[in-house]
Amino acid sequence: MFHIKEKQEQIRDLLESLKEPIILEKFEQDLAERPEHILEIDEATEIAVERYYNAKQREEMAEVERKKAEKEALMQGDNIGMRGLKYMMGGNELIMKKEKNKLDEELVREDWMNKPEEEMNEDEKQRLKEFEQRLKDSIEKQRKQWLVNLQRVRNEIIEIKAKFEE
Questions:
Q1: Whole-number Å distance between alpha carbons of 31 and 38
Q2: Integer Cα distance of 82 and 93 in angstroms
Q3: Over the Cα atoms of the chain, what is R_g?
Q4: Per-residue confidence in pLDDT tens, the chain, 166 aa
Q5: Cβ neighbours of residue 166 under 8 Å, at least 6 residues apart?
Q6: Which structural domain range is residue 45 located in?
Q7: Does the predicted model carry a pTM greater than 0.90?
């Protein structure tokens, strides 16, 4: 189940990159596979009783809540731990995000490409067409690579399921 969930996260990232709807197959254990379910408490059968707190307990709870709010307010300021984590990870949470942005960085539009076509000479028009074609090819190549990876990960899930059944 753990390996399948990891693969489904990869599928989710790939589908997000492809801008397709995210539809994932659900995998759940049967009750027969979880004998500890007998000890679980169901909210529908649980009797709810509101706990009574005396004045002293309410004051203590208010004090704890106030201290917690103060601590959270301090944490909202300059948080060295989160800054260190972002710096350590290079500002990116996933490698997939880096790959997504790499495509944008690879082909950069030059300033002269932004002027109207009437003001361009023949050489600039030709280079602009070549740039647009390279950009289109690059996008299509990346899309094909994502589709191949998506199919590979789905096949890995099928293999995991087959090994488990064996």
A1: 9
A2: 12
A3: 28
A4: 778 888 888 888 888 888 888 777 777 777 777 888 788 888 877 788 888 999 999 999 999 999 999 888 777 766 677 667 666 765 544 444 555 555 555 666 666 666 777 777 777 778 878 888 888 888 888 888 888 888 888 898 889 888 888 8
A5: none
A6: 2-165
A7: no
Q: 13: number of CA atoms within 13 Å, CB side?
A: 15
Q: How many CB atoms lie within 10 A of CB 55?
A: 7
Cβ–Cβ < 8 Å for 3, 160: yes
| Alpha-carbon torsion angle 33, 39, 41, 44, nearest 10 | 70
DSSP H helices, 19-121, are 55-76, 80-88, 95-106
Cα(52)–Cα(66) distance, rounded to whole angstroms? Answer: 21
Number of CB atoms found within 10 A of residue 7's CB: 20
Domain count for the chain, please give it: 1
Tokens 């260190």, residue located: 84
Q: Which helix (H) or strand (E) holds 133?
A: helix 122-165
Question: Within 13 Å of residue 79, how many CA atoms lie on the same side as its CB?
Answer: 12
Tokens describing residue 41: 């408490």
Distance of alpha carbon 142 from alpha carbon 102, whole angstroms: 10
